[in-house]
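Summary for the steering committee. One of the milestones for this cycle was to obtain a three-dimensional model of the protein with flavin mononucleotide bound, which we needed before selecting residues for the alanine scan. The sequence and ligand used are listed below.
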Amino acid sequence: MNFYREKRMAKKPASTEVAIHELIAGRWSPRAYSSEPVSRDQLRAVLEAARWAPSSYNAQPWRFVVFDRSVDEVAFKKAFATLVPFNQGWNAPAPVLIAVTAHTLTSKGDVNRCALYDAGAAAMSLVLQAHALGLAAHQMSGFDVNAFRTTFELPKDVEPIAMISLGHYGDVDKLDPVLREREKAPRQRVALAEIAYGGGWKKAF
Ligand SMILES: Cc1cc2nc3c(=O)[nH]c(=O)nc-3n(C[C@H](O)[C@H](O)[C@H](O)COP(=O)(O)O)c2cc1C
């Protein structure tokens, strides 16, 4: 079973300019899922990882809404329906969707300028923990934010930011040909020199 799982876990390590930790280099955004459920323990572990993210004033503005097909199929289908058609296509077998949301106001009612930043940090912890567990996780902005807000009756100050699909790696060859090619293509990033400046805007690091 372990061997089978290893075999299924497609790997696309980053070709880094400098050596970095495997957990970071090895995480990627797969689109080939199997329909095997994610265990409750695994779900609790990825949420726990998110919980320990840092945040401005330790405000912890993130809130995650978990849609587990094997626990509440009706709710799962409602969340799934908010995905854009492209994302619905490759997510058809995915067993879990997690909505990443954040309280955008502080307890005093002021705008929390860092709420989305903090929620993004928590989401990154979540997907890294998923990778550490051998699970596939894929973040998505392609969903109908207003439909999600209405369907799940979110409070006014809560912003739905992203959806994360979570599951076990599936068969890449079952994807349509275009996505299959993308799934196998190397991961790309702009050069380190383009994202890091030293001592001033656009000054070489
Ligand atoms: C906030 C966010 C939104 C994204 N939205 C989508 C999406 O709607 N659909 C999709 O297929 N991929 C989506 N992605 C995945 C990105 O395309 C992917 O992270 C990027 O191409 C880099 O690939 P990698 O994660 O494998 O390194 C999203 C990623 C992030 C972080």
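Key point for the committee: Confidence is low (pLDDT under 50) at residues 1-7.
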